[in-house]
Design a protein that fits this description.
Strand content: 15-25%
InterPro entries: HET
Radius of gyration: 21 Å
Number of strands: 13
Strand order of the largest sheet: 2-1-3-6-7-8-9
Shape: globular
Organism: Truncatella angustata
Protein name: Heterokaryon incompatibility protein-domain-containing protein
Oligomer: single chain
Largest sheet: 7 strands, mixed
Pfam families: HET
Low-confidence stretches: 184-189
């Protein structure tokens, strides 16, 4: 199956609820589906894959029980997908992502001469991937990090990323380091390896808290899939967004330089010592 990562951008015109579940098991109202989901269906068919997983359709939206079950499965849903489609350009579900791209900003490869080699190539490209709407939504961070293969439809290009590298349409190779996935790549129990994993977790939390959430109560839920990947037995317990191994270093979080204040919600969300207890971006 293919999994879809996209921005909702507000209420969904079609979603599975207790009232629509049985109808959706038989057929979906194709004419009412938002353009982003229609585009994802087209890509899935083009890849000759039979199934497409979409959260608005595959989770019963008005069932707290079903939501809890499916959120607990997020690690496997994206980690075990054949490929994850990222609707990177779409700020809402109605925008779609198969529109014409800006050809004037496509990468250009130029032949060049260098003093230390006879000849070579220089690749000129605009890398605005971080500015895409998809990278401003909290939930999509774990969807991308958990996916072993990601097909990103950006405003400038189509990009494919897997654990071996990155390429853009036209075959343009991109700089790649496996640690760019952000996921722990060591399985050993050495202390230096564990320290590196904790440092990776802190980097992810910093980036994640800079993103937005439609419901701020999802602050821990929207990163829980990544947490399950990180929290190996030798790292101890997962404590409301922190890892018990090297816990003191994680307790000294503070507001990011871009934040003027860190408001706290009126209702309890997490212990006061956790970054999840406040709203806004933090740094370690």
């Amino acid at each position: 199956y293919v999994a879809l990562s996209y921005c909702w951008g507000g209420p969904q015109p079609v979603e599975t609820t207790k009232a629509t579940l049985h109808r959706h098991l038989n057929a979906l109202p194709m004419e009412r589906l938002p353009q982003t989901i229609k585009d994802a269906i087209a890509v899935t068919r083009g890849l000759k894959v039979k199934y497409l997983w979409v959260d608005a359709l595959c989770i019963i939206q008005d069932s707290l029980e079903d939501k809890a079950i499916e959120i607990s499965r997020m690690t496997d849903i994206y980690n075990l997908s054949h490929v994850t489609i990222s609707a990177s350009t779409a700020a809402t579900c109605q925008d779609g992502f198969l529109q014409q791209r800006k050809l004037e900003k496509q990468p250009i490869k130029l032949r060049a001469k260098f003093s230390h080699v006879r000849k070579g190539n220089v690749l000129l490209m605009v890398d605005s991937q971080g500015d895409e709407p998809i990278h401003k939504r909290g939930w999509t961070m774990q969807e991308h990090l958990l996916a072993p293969r990601l097909l990103s439809f950006g405003s400038l290009c189509l990009e494919y990323r897997c654990l071996s590298g990155r390429r853009r349409d036209g075959g343009t190779p991109l700089p790649w380091n496996q640690q760019q996935t952000g996921m722990p790549i060591t399985e050993g129990g050495a202390q230096e390896d564990k320290s590196r994993v904790v440092a990776q977790w802190a980097n992810i939390v910093e980036a994640y808290t800079g993103r937005g959430l439609g419901f701020l109560d999802d602050r821990l839920n929207a990163i829980s899939g990544i947490a399950r990947k990180f929290c190996r037995p030798e790292l101890g317990e997962y404590l409301a967004g922190l890892i018990s191994f090297e816990l003191p270093s994680q307790l000294v979080w503070s507001r990011a330089a871009s934040q003027t204040s860190l408001p706290r919600p009126k209702a309890y969300r997490a212990p006061s010592w956790s970054w999840a207890a406040i709203d806004g971006q933090v740094s370690f």
